[in-house]
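User: My collaborator and I are trying to settle a disagreement about how two of our proteins should look. Neither of us wants to argue from intuition anymore, so we agreed to look at predicted structures for both before our next call. Could you fold the first one, then the second, and keep them clearly separated?

Assistant: That sounds like a sensible way to settle it. I'll keep them separate. The first protein:
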Amino acid sequence: MMLRSLLGEPPRQNEGLLGDTINAMIQTTKLLQKETELSKDPTHDFRKLEIWTLGLITSLDELEQCLHAAAFFRKKVVHDSIEDMDPAERSDYARYVFFYKDGFIRVFSTLDKLGTVLNELFDLKTSKVKAHFSYFTVLRQFRYMKVHMELGDRLVAIKEKYKEALAELRRRRNTEIHYMNSEMKDDLWQRHQTLRGKIELEDLDQHLHDLEQGYLMVCETLHTAFAYSNQRWKKVSLK
């Protein structure tokens, strides 16, 4: 919500898929609070999961804000090369790059946090396979352990639905973290192609589209995982 205020916009209304996803996670925290009260949670497992779920709500909120801010500043960029921009437009382009990069990094960090929650929630024992595991490693554990395969299959279907955008976001994330700024890589390639010509900006609209797809993938994944967990929890409670 904070970024909209800084941009002079009204607060976001949590509607549609975003609203449903946040509501599913809030429902999980309430179920965990109830379990804590009933059992007194001697091992603090329920409290830990509650804190992690609240953290995921924050992570999703921050990812959505990054996407929104990147789209906001992209609209202010009208020239196709930095050389043609005045100082104000260069600043808006720099802000777009900042929020775009922050966004695609948050796509994977949010998924990995979810992986930690799922591993704990469903006792998937992923750390025995890999000490520092990602969401995608956890996803493979459903089938390997032959547990909650209905959920695992749904999550795999979501991953496949968005695989092209995810592959591009992962490539740019890896470039950003391990090699150089992803936009600099684009610049170097264009320098090589044009030699002395102007460097045209990367395809901002395509990059924003990929980031939006990544955000939707995160929303659908979170919603599916927590709705399944809530439904299962209620069935167990009724027995």
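The second protein, kept apart from the first:
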Amino acid sequence: MNASDNNNFDEMYAPDGTVRNAYSLYDRWLSEQDRSWMRRKAFEAESFFRRTGITFNVYGDDDGEERLIPFDMVPRIISGSEWRKLSRGIEQRVRALNAFMHDLYHRQEIIRSGRLPERLFRNNSAWLQQMVGFTPPGGVYTHIVGIDLVRTGPDEFLVLEDNARTPSGVSYMLENRETMMAMFPELFAQIKVQPVSNYPRRLAKSLAACAPPRTEGTPTVAVLTPGIYNSAYFEHAFLADQMGAELVEGNDLRVIDGKVQMRTTSGYRPIDVLYRRVDDDFLDPLTFRPDSMLGVPGIMDVYRSGGITIANAPGTGIADDKAIYAFMPEIVEFYTGEKPLLPNVQTWRCAEEDSLKFVLDQLPELVVKEVHGSGGYGMLIGPTSSKREIEAFRKKLVANPGNYIAQPTLALSTCPILTNRGLAPRHVDLRPFVLVSPQGIDITPGGLTRVALKKGSLVVNSSQGGGTKDSWVLDD
């Protein structure tokens, strides 16, 4: 493969076809490998993922069939100096998010200052009245955060969205690395790559550090899953196993003597920290949805009395709202006193009259997203949509403009994938994973690289046909 034939920034190749420094050692190794051997390795990797059970379910699929997330063997490589700069921006943003959560459930200084419109949360279902005036143990709201980044140039990373509720995908990051190390051990002997395999241990330590002050001895941590039919169940089971934590469902837990306790073979045993992968609505049928069979009746009372830590805190989902995202530059500056080190993608707030007019005029050129949407659903990618699709979306936009934000169609960077014809560029994004505790902010070097496997596609979500790569941060 030579230089990329499009105008996007190619992370491996410079415009003149030379290999960028971060990829130089990998390129040298790759040039010595037989193409048919690499194809056999790709088949071997798929067999490994299938045996391990690394699958996901797609909501709304009629057959409910579990699918493999496609894995590409060409790593996405980031230099150590690039990562250090990125990390400073990620840490700044996560600090601001946590401070924002505290303020929003207490004095709401950012609203009083006029920096953030009250309408953004007053009628927002993700903002929970039950959290008003309550501070979680250690003052931590966002224990695990995933910040989605895109790259548009040599030194240009932008934040695409924040995931502060229940960010997923870390199990794929870990399994991608394990697969690469098993298949190409000589690569890791030649190239110094920062490790990610210690993430579960760091997660367990970070969660334990957030245990309620009254905890006696070593905190007991459990992972709450909705069950085997959830799209991310593999990840829930994987992380519980890797952390040495208990994997529980709602019917395994009950409130006894003011504590949330889990059923064991020797009776009920209290837990101190619950890493929940259940949405707020289903967490407590006595507080939220009364028909929920996934949560624990009374857990919110125990939580508010200081008897358990819930990670992430209920109510943090408001930070995932794309209308809130549009104000993140103001939020970062308000709580840190600094300009954002990582800029947002330019965003038009369709709730604002001037922005809506511009978006309607430029609809075929823009990407429009639902403020509560995720997974690549409920969005319009103007340049790749038909006139009929654009006009249908225009009607939805006019009917409910506050439900949408719009962004330019970005020239996302590309990384090579392995095809039958050799290497070919495909668009990528990056989700670094961040752990927050009273002891500080811990950023795993790399994260999950998602790749749009279809030529020209900008949609990297696994539910929309995307795949994943191993993300290498060089130890330089």
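Some points you might bring to the call about the second protein. Residues 80-104 form the longest helix (25 residues). Residues 1-5, 58-64 have pLDDT under 50 and may be disordered.
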